[in-house]
Amino acid sequence: MTEFWLISAPGEKTCQQTWDKLMVATTRTNNLSVNNKFNIPDLKVGTLDVLVGLSDELAKLDTFVESVVKKVAQYMADVLEDSRDKVQENLLANGVDLVTYITRFQWDMAKYPIKQSLKNISEIIAKQASQIDNDLKARASAYNNLKGNLQNLERKNAGSLLTRSLADIAKKEDFVLDSEYLITMLVVVPKTGYTDWQKTYETLSEMVVPRSTKLLFEDHDSGLFSVTLFRKAIDDFKHKARENKFTVRDFQYNEEEMKADKEEMTRLSTDKKKQFGPLVRWLKVNFSEAFIAWIHIKALRVFVESVLRYGLPVNFQAMLLQPTKKNMKKLREVLNDLYKHLDSSAAIIDAAMDIPGLNLSQQEYYPYVYYKIDCNLLDFKV
């Protein structure tokens, strides 16, 4: 399970007592969850008005930063293409896996100084997340263009003989070049039609050079034949070939063009390899930054919501629960029994219930402060 429940409850005589009660209720006899204390430092409280406003802003910021984290993770998976199984080992926070980071969370005093106001800290995070989001768009766009151009060229050199580029098949010696009167055409013939081709190609139109056909290349369905004829017979030959289910490819042997195509492919391939390493490094660093910022927002939200609900002086215990999947419903019931005295009106309101005038921002409401953290950040299972 990569889902965590970050909750808080007011301190009893001490916060340790709150923690001990939770441990007894959820782990002593029934192993409903694996629990860790979630350490939030003494942040500056500010005024009630500021806290109420901040509560809404942090909810929006939480959603935005989570989306940035997911975008960076998903793009990492896209860039790693064939090594998608390696994605998870690159998605680290501060050099450790995500579960370890969350369960051993320590506030980063250097990045988010606690002497600053809560609003300032949230603004630092918002600015940082926006920067990562904008940088990702720019880097992804540049890399995707390169990758797209390369794929287009690769696609040209693959697929059916009816559509693919013939530049890597055609050789100079297969063509009559620099002739005023003669031209070599390339014709795609279905494998079932080889005999018909050999019997009929000389008579498809006038002025076809006898015994000039040669099989140059075969794929699964067809063969590519060359045939030489007089230039003035081109249109008639194409028309008659089509009637006989032979496809004349519009191809002129041009060494300069073919060389330019090969050079372009080599250049794009080299550029892609050059960009790959730095891009993956950037994604690793900025995934870590975004994820750390996201968990700090969760900490800010718990702090703000706990002060708003439980009052001053600040006295609450934040706790991180990792529920076992089969016991989630039971865990919810146990927590409700444990904390229902905190808010007698809080019969559990589920996010799916629409209560007019009560905007819960799609967040379930319980008698205790609750936020979900889901570490499964990718659309596919790695």
From TrEMBL:
Cite the record's note on assembly: V-ATPase is a heteromultimeric enzyme made up of two complexes: the ATP-hydrolytic V1 complex and the proton translocation V0 complex. The V1 complex consists of three catalytic AB heterodimers that form a heterohexamer, three peripheral stalks each consisting of EG heterodimers, one central rotor including subunits D and F, and the regulatory subunits C and H. The proton translocation complex V0 consists of the proton transport subunit a, a ring of proteolipid subunits c9c'', rotary subunit d, subunits e and f, and two accessory subunits.
**Which CDD domains did the record assign?**
V-ATPase_C (cd14785)
Kindly indicate whether the keyword Ion transport belongs to this entry: yes
Q: Which InterPro entries match?
A: ATPase_V1-cplx_csu (IPR004907), Vac_ATP_synth_c_sf (IPR036132)
| Protein name, UniProt field | V-type proton ATPase subunit C
Q: Which UniProt keywords apply?
A: Acetylation, Hydrogen ion transport, Ion transport, Transport
The record's function comment reads: Subunit of the V1 complex of vacuolar(H+)-ATPase (V-ATPase), a multisubunit enzyme composed of a peripheral complex (V1) that hydrolyzes ATP and a membrane integral complex (V0) that translocates protons. V-ATPase is responsible for acidifying and maintaining the pH of intracellular compartments and in some cell types, is targeted to the plasma membrane, where it is responsible for acidifying the extracellular environment. Subunit C is necessary for the assembly of the catalytic sector of the enzyme and is likely to have a specific function in its catalytic activity.
Species in which this protein is naturally found: Cottoperca gobio
A GO cellular component term found in this entry reads: lysosomal membrane
Similarity annotation? Belongs to the V-ATPase C subunit family.
Q: What are the recorded GO MF terms, alphabetically?
A: proton-transporting ATPase activity, rotational mechanism
